[in-house]
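This protein record is not my work; I was only asked to verify it. Take the sequence as given and treat only the tokens as open to question. I have pasted the whole thing underneath without changing anything:
***
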Amino acid sequence: MNNRNITDIFFDLDHTLWDFDKNSGLAFERVFKTFEIPLQLEDFLAVYEPINLQYWRLYREERIEKQALRRGRLGDAFAQFELSYPLNTIDAMAEQYIEELPKDNYLFDGATELLEYLQPNYRLHLITNGFHGVQHRKIQNSGIAHFFETVTTSEDVGAKKPNPKVFEHALALAGVTATTSMMIGDSFEADILGAEAVGFKTIFFNYRNQDVTQGRIAVNSLDAIKNHL
């Protein structure tokens, strides 16, 4: 695939540059201590993480609101262990988790090196479905804010990837067209199909080794992106 006309590269944040699962686990470790939750953290996370992805899909499809996302993923995960907490306790846990989440800021291996490699030749941007305040704290606290000329969050737009409005907003903010833009992300539906529908070229960060339609660029490490840009 010829990428010589690419001038701007748009990254997803969570699960692409920012190691969400590792940072989330550390945040939950502190929440569990505060609320004296009688579970092994590893057992809880094994149940919680797929439930969280399901709730984010519902949120992305605008079938639930933010509060239902934050309550539902915790309540459903605890229910698998036959644990139940009052709604005000669930809300307090969810609030502390959101406060704790940006405190640990591990990036995927090679993230900083990739951004350093790309920055001299491309303008870099972020498009994320996360909440504005939380995502900006992650970007600042992880030391990568200086790489990006623009940041678009779904909360800014009032819509979520793969909705075209998100990508169109990001393009307008950057002052570029989709034909000279590349989207890199880990969600095949939200990042890849969503961006392609607007006209972006794409690179799928397929670290989960999902089946991918032939004809697309897919990599399972960030370092491998250098072979295509």
Summary: The mean pLDDT is 94. The domain at 20-103 is CATH 1.10.150.240 (DNA polymerase; domain 1). The two ends are 10 Å apart (CA to CA).
